[in-house]
Amino acid sequence: MPVLNRNAAARVSSRSNLALPAAALALADPAPGGPSRLPDAARGRIFDTCANPGCRSGWLRLWRSRSAPVFEGGWCCSEACTRALVGLALAREMEARGSAADTRRPRLPLGLVMLERGWIAADQLRGALEAQRAAGGGRLGYWLARQQGVSAALVTRALGLQWSCPVLPLEFHDPEGLTPLVPRLFIDAFGALPLRVAAGRILYLGFEDRLDPALALAVERITGLRVESGMVEESRFRPAHARLLKARFPAVELIEAASEPALAYAMARALERARPVESRLARVHDCLWLRMWLRPRTSAVPELDAVSDLIGSAGGN
Ligand SMILES: [Zn+2]
Hints:
Blueprint: H1 8-11, H2 20-28, H3 40-46, E1 70-71, E2 74-75, H4 79-95, H5 100-103, H6 110-116, H7 122-135, H8 140-148, H9 152-162, H10 184-189, E3 192-198, E4 202-207, H11 213-223, E5 226-231, H12 234-245, E6 251-257, H13 260-274, E7 278-284, E8 287-293, E9 307-314
Parallel strand pairs: 4-5, 6-9
Antiparallel strand pairs: 1-2, 3-4, 7-8, 8-9
């Protein structure tokens, strides 16, 4: 049921819903004893209109008993509008596929980077490449270290040069404390290791042998933190990564939808159920990540039970 407590100003116009916003605008004018006494933030919120650009209801948040869900900073007046808004966001994310973040590759092969700097000799590179071929794969850095006796630290340094990123230390690493920032599925599937948050605004994200700019960008958009990606030496990365995967993570729902509209529908349902105070959508490769904040944010890293994720894929991707 929509309007429960229309006030005097709203009654001025009772002809149709479409006329209501004009009355509300009059209400919003500063008037002694009127709504101008509200703090600015609260005023902004209660005078919000529905965020769905196609919405024709004209409801203001002020007149609705629902104040949530909030999706990407906008309030939705009804479940249909939540669905429409999520559908638009989903289409936006799918359109951006194949962007620079997805396709970034290092400029130079690792062997060449090391050869150029004189860190390995040509016959060491040849030997490692042969071993790699004979084994049918494996990373070149692995074969250089294992078969040619090149130090793992040097390989990691070369990876940093190859990807133009720093080598990140594990000091001050707090795996359990950072699980609310990146879903376990992404940490596992894309080999990422959240290392620490500096000054409440920079997240250091470690990788073993190749960066994942698409994941880094999604984490940045969802968390609002600036993500600094870097390499972590393999011997340190592996145990830290294994330990992190055993830690507790926020609740997550995984959905494999048959189509994009079906995924939008499932996400809208989740939003209507959880009624988050904020939520955001970002794509990570073929996954769509919907994060919901169930309580207002008070720090850079939310509490485990203050957020909830939905990760979905749409058939035919
Ligand atoms: Zn609406």
